[in-house]
Fold this sequence. Notes:
By secondary structure, the chain is mainly alpha-helical. It contains 19 helices and six strands. The strands form three sheets. The protein has a two-stranded antiparallel sheet. Helix 6 (109-145) runs antiparallel to helix 19. It is elongated, with a radius of gyration of 30 Å. The relative contact order is 0.11. The model has no long low-confidence stretch (mean pLDDT 95). The chain binds arginine. Arginine binds at residues 23, 27, 83, 109-110, 113, 317, 319, 321-322.
Amino acid sequence: MAKMWTGRTGGETSPIADDFNSSIGVDCRMYQQDIEGSMAHATMLAKQGIIAFDEAEQLIKGLDSILNDLKTGALDFDMTCEDIHMFVEAELTSRLGAVGKKLHTARSRNDQVALDLRMYTKAEIDTIIGMLEKLVEVLLMLAKNNQDAIMPGYTHLQRAQPVLFAHHMMAYAMMFLRDIDRLMDCRKRTNVSPIGSCALAGTTYETDRFFEAEALGFGDIARNSIDGVSDRDYCIEFVSAASTIMMHLSRFSEELVLWSSSEFGFITLSDAFTTGSSIMPQKKNPDMAELCRGKTGRVYGDLVALLTILKGIPLAYNKDMQEEKEMVFDAIDTVKKCIEVYIPMLAEMQVNADAMLNAVKTGYINATDLADYLAVKGIPFRDAYKIAGQAVATCIATGAVLETLPIETYKALNEAIEEDVYQALDIKTCVERRISTGGTSLKSVLEQFEYVDAKLAEYKAAN
Ligand code: ARG
């Protein structure tokens, strides 16, 4: 494809340089944004009297037919073009003749690429928000369907205190709600139109940037043309939000991997979302969870790459910026793929409440409750803590658990202990008594369901 920018340069570029310089293989996915942007640009040019109305009409018709042909597959991308912007313009000119060349009036590829990437990212933010909402809905369903399941809550991966499985699931719901919130916030700064910044300094034509921005659904325009073509903060914010989503999925994945092991046995992942081993017939591997954990590294890499690309480039546009799209697209693709696999994987996951309860019963997990019981009887908490510790040591030495330690043994530890200690040590009681707001009692967990439901409704109404 002949270069549109030949003018000053007379000599031919090397095919090696052409190949190195080309971005169409990456940015062709923004073809729809590129074409819609051009349609709005043609409309604005005509409204402002910069081109004639009938010329705008021809341009828009031509652009529309290109869009259609690309969608139906009647037209293929010409991979010898430098980028998607060059491709669309060249195709338009070959279809319309000279009038096609008028489209690029009062515009530069610098503001064009900035526009396309913002439109593309904004649409993907909306898609990812929708996917996260579904993920939270599955978590709610899982929690509501397993309201009675009690599992060990851990600190340091040591059994700490009993919690409702539903409570644990709601912890993840809170994380993903924050992720939605982060994306919505980043969307605000993505939703700013750079078009009309032109190469960097604005233009001599009397354009209407507000009109063009509004036609494309933007909330505002970039108020400084140099910043308009240079700003990629929203990419960093988006990939940072994507990294946080991945970090949440990765922590969850780590738990699913542990829980599905024979050592835990808390959950069984469905056959549809596990794999076998080519040599060990007994195996059922949690590959999907492991891959999500692994892919987290990719997205972190995207973030670090973006920050690094931007840190040294002077204002305004520099070709380094062409690289950014790959990182943004990779983060988008990876996050979407992971959430896409998570939703059905969780929906089909079997919760093994018995195995959870077994783990709860053998971990002296109610030792805090014993200390609290003694404290209520008037023993200072630090002393109560010691006595409870001695009780656990006795259990370990005799192979008992706190619930089965004989009353005489308790009495020997402290006279204040009475028969009602067994009621206090009952696992269900331990859970049910944690009624503090945000705690693990069913009452508090039901409140969390309501909170999550309300947040979801709020986000859905806003989107
Ligand atoms: N392909 C370029 C990119 O993705 C488009 C903008 C190029 N502008 C320029 N003056 N070379 O960044």
